[in-house]
Amino acid sequence: MHFGRMRSALARLAGLFGRDERDRELAEELEAHLQMQVEENLRAGMSPSEARRQALVKLGGPTQAVEECRRRRGVPVLEDLWQDLRYGVRTLRKQPGFTLVAVLTLALGIGASTTIFSAVNPILFEPLPYPQAERLVSISETFDNGARNPGTFGMYRGLAERSRSFDALAVYKTWLPAMNGADHPERFEGQRVSFEYFRVLGISPALGRDFQAADDRTGGPGVVIIGDALWRRRFGGDPAIVGRSVTLDDSPFTIIGVMPGGFDNVLAPNAEVWAPLQYDMSLGSAWGHHLRTLGRLRAGVSAGQATRETDALGHAVLEEQRPETYDPRVKFVVSSLQEEVTGGVRPALLAVLSAVLLLLLIACVNVTNLLLARGAQRRGEFAMRAALGAARGRLVRQMLTESLLLALLGGALGLLAAQFGAGLLVALSPPELPRAGAIRVDAAAFAFAFGGAALVGLLVGLIPALHATHGDLREAVQQSSRRTAGGQQLTRRVLVVAEVALALVLLVGAGLLLRSMERLFAVDPGFDASHLLTMQVQTSRRFDKEATERFFAGALEAVRRVPGVTAAAFTNQLPLSGDDDEYGAHFEGDDPATAYNVFRYGVSPGYLETTGIPLRRGRTLDEHDVAGAPPSILISESLARRRFPDQDPVGRRVQIGPANGPWFNIVGVVGDVKQVSLVSSQPDAVYITTAQWLFVDRTLSLVVRARGDAAALAPAVRQAVWSVDKGQPIVRVATMDELLAASAAERRFALILFEAFGLAALVLAAVGIYGVLSGSVNERTREIGVRLALGASRGHILALVLRQGMKLTGIGVAAGLCGAAAASSALVSLLFGVSRLDPAAYLGVVALLAAVSAAACWVPAWRAARVDPSITLRAE
Amino acid sequence: MDDKTIWQGTLSLMILKTLEALGPQHGYGIARRIEQTSGDTLSVNYGTLYPALLKLEQEGSVSSEWGLSDNNRRAKYYKLTRAGRRQLAAESREWERTTVIMARFFAPAEES
Predict the structure, then answer these.
(1) CA-CA 20 to 30 A from A350: which of A3, A93, A102, B11?
(2) What is the pLDDT of residues A470-487, one digit of tens each?
(3) Positive or negative, the Cα torsion across A627, A629, A631, A636?
(4) Which H/E stretch holds residue A335?
(5) Nearest chain B Cα distance for residue A21, angstroms
(6) In this structure, is residue B41 part of a structural domain?
(7) Which residues contact A514 (CB under 8 A, 6 or more apart)?
């Protein structure tokens, strides 16, 4: 029985095809039946015509049998759908203008949201690309005031020995080894990792072997694992690479493995070389906070349980091994690695996602409005079909099929647009965006686009479908189809108001971000950023301090000779580049426990002059401040104000770094500089010549002031440096303006997207207002004609229509202002220097929206004013 | 409406029984046989016969192929499949049981 049912279901599905053939067969069969009946009747003695008549009476009309068989053969719902689809395609093709506008609008909405989804989904919602990624955690030391310390090697050892919460623990730090040498010198990005780093992530090398405990001990072998891209780029994908030797930072390393091509190292996306930490516990830096700690939770252990255990163990370890510096206020927190990696960009991404969903909503409202207008025009057609026996449900289904068709077309086009959009987004994305490599239009984005399109199709289709088939359709047949129900106009107006309100919310977001950006770039970085070219030079580890100094001095001399260069200098940390070198500064006479945290700039004489950092007091550093001369130091204005209020710091002494280091004489005070970012307010800094610094600064940034275009000088400057020694790699070549822009990249990213979405929303809202007003003017042509005939002036009519449009805009603006005020709280973390209720942003947006909507109203109003009363009155 | 549904259920059974008795047969032959057997109290028209045949064919109880009738006319012949025979057997038993039970209900009360 079951079998029979399944068989007939299959037969029915098959029946959807070859339908004409089957109809023909059935007709032949019925005809044969009829003929046999006729022959039988003839044999019974009837006349030929009587025999035929009787047979027809007996067998009934063939139509019913044919219909019944058809219904039984196919699946009625599918057949209706097919019919609706064909009908829908026909109607849409008949109105190419409408179809184009609707499809493009939906494609814009769906394309933009799919693009953003394809970026947000892997970053915020998908697990990290590792096996059982939910078990990956980071471990940090935090304080109640929100301060967080990086981990220490001592704590890693302590936890690794005692903790039961983890399958494996690892620590890592950044490593930027150089391949010095006359053949292409290159600097790599990499990591120094404890031996279980890859085991924690759950990824093993594709070639060779992973690190082992034996690799990761003081004085262990020089071994390195390289990334797939580096393997292909530098070693031609040599399958026999394992065992080969490479020289990094002038030390030999043996390549023991190659990571798989798909390995996505979310903690350092550009890293392509990894070496064991080989930490020397005896050096005394085991408790220095400069490592990051991550772990893989044991199956079944929650982050909360791990936090409790780790906190207890951490305190025990510190109390036992570091009693002199143990601070009981420290808290050890185990948190999801996903959150750690993506938490920073979450607010910006969620803001952008909300913005694009607003845009999608506006696009939907717009298309709903278009469909409503079209539904009103088609009332006559629906009335006719209803009169011919179509049920209301069938008509609604027909309209929904059409809107779904529009939405799916829009979705397909949108998906295509998203392919480009995703590429554009990656190009625009700020460097701090984690997992940018995972941004692609994948299956999830595909599902999003088409799921979204289907939903949108139903959403935009339902209201118009109900409207168009609503009420007594018979009436509509009798009346002119021009007349529309008042309710339909009301709905359209409400939708336009909603559209204006939504557009305003988006535009206010864009306005606030724009104002923030203005404020941000109005911030004085503390130096003259224009016409500055910068590049980082990393010297060989074989150079001793003297050789390093000699190389940099020679390079400087060569660079200064390059035509177009007006000044040049070196610094160990470049503002706004991500460089960070901080020390404790201890002033003479202060309690040894009070140290000021300062940026230590190791510079060549002439750095202040080259960058344009102003000297406030005393003298700058010059060529007399060399090794052996009395140590000289400059301090920043803010530090001078803090430590020496109302006193002259010049002539005072300060110690930087170790307590056994030299005392530096303060010779001058200089202006404050933004080091970390334009937003950051930490400006305390000291400047010392590299020659007088305690250690060797091997990696320095060259700063060059150009007479004209700074970027154009780059090749010549690079050649000048290499003219001294061709073996030293040069990286991070950028103008200061580029660095400045990059430091605001996350805000700029959000701003560009908000601007784009806001602009699109503005256009859609304008089109919406225009559409509703033109529709209304068309319907009121007769009324306007009467008014004109009765003596109304054209100016009066113009004002009438304009007033109608501006009233809608006004209501929309009022609603939008409330919405924007509420929604702006989502943007707070991206704002700088402006309140989320910044009046200038709100007023500016209202003015813009009012102007655009006035322009959109003007055309229909003008048309209304040009109505010829004699023609319109005669028309009816 | 009710009339028709009962009629359709039993019609399928009649068609199967007819095909069992006559062997392969075309639609007209089946209709005539049912009418004759019923003593011309039933009249089979297009609208009931062909949908019923289609249903039986979809369920796999009968199969059809084109052939020539006695008068050399092209006609579609239906024949019982093995599944159809099984179904007929099962439904005949069911039918007999039902008629026996129903007969008992309508028989004059003998014991009392």
Answers:
(1) A102
(2) 666 555 555 544 444 556
(3) negative
(4) strand A331-336
(5) 14
(6) yes
(7) A751, A755, A841
pLDDT at A292 over 60: yes
Q: Could you tell me the residue range of the domain that residue B57 belongs to? A: 2-106
Q: Which two tokens stand for residue A536?
A: 């980082």
Question: What is the rounded distance in angstroms from the CA atom of residue A417 to the CA atom of residue A453?
Answer: 14
Mean pLDDT, residues A103-127: 91
Q: How many domains does chain B have?
A: 1
Task: Return the number of CB contacts < 8 Å for A and B.
Answer: 78
Mean pLDDT lowest for which of A191-200, A429-438, A548-557, A845-854? A429-438
What is the token pair recorded at A414? Answer: 């949108």
Indicate yes or no: CB of A72 within 8 angstroms of CB of B60. no
Q: Which two tokens stand for residue B24?
A: 């392969």
CB A392 within 8 A of CB A88: no
Is the CB of A7 less than 8 angstroms away from the CB of B58?
A: yes
- Is the CB of B55 inside 8 Å of chain A's CB atoms? yes
Closest A-chain CA to B51: A69
Q: Which of A475, A198, A505 is nearest to A365 (CA)?
A: A505
**Average pLDDT score over residue span A569-576:** 94
**What residue spans define the domains of chain A?**
2-74, 144-329, 346-521+745-875, 541-726
pLDDT at A1: 46
Query: Hey, are the CB atoms on A58 and B43 less than 8 Å from each other?
Result: yes
Which pairing describes strands A136-142 and A292-297: parallel, antiparallel, or unpaired? Answer: antiparallel
Q: Is A391 left (phi over 0), alpha (psi -120 to 50) or beta?
A: beta
What is the 3 state secondary structure string of chain B?
CHHHHHHHHHHHHHHHHHHHHHCCEEHHHHHHHHHHHCCCCCCCCHHHHHHHHHHHHHHCCEEEEEEECCCCCEEEEEEECHHHHHHHHHHHHHHHHHHHHHHHHHCCCCCC
Region A788-806: what's the mean pLDDT?
88
* Best CA proximity match to A500, nearest among A368, A350, A358: A358
Top mean-pLDDT range of A280-289, A486-495, A578-587, A835-844: A835-844
Residue range A455-465, pLDDT digits in tens:
888 888 888 88
Q: How far from B56 is each of A258, A762, B9, B85, CA to CA, in Å?
A: 66, 63, 11, 12
Q: How far apart are CA A9 and CA A25, in angstroms?
A: 21
Bridge partners for A439 per DSSP: none
Residue A68 has pLDDT above 80, yes or no: no
- Chain-centre distance for alpha carbon A741: 18
The answer to whether position B111 is within a domain reads no
Q: Answer yes or no: is pLDDT of B4 > 70.
A: no
Q: Give the Cα separation of A534 and A532 in Å (integer).
A: 7
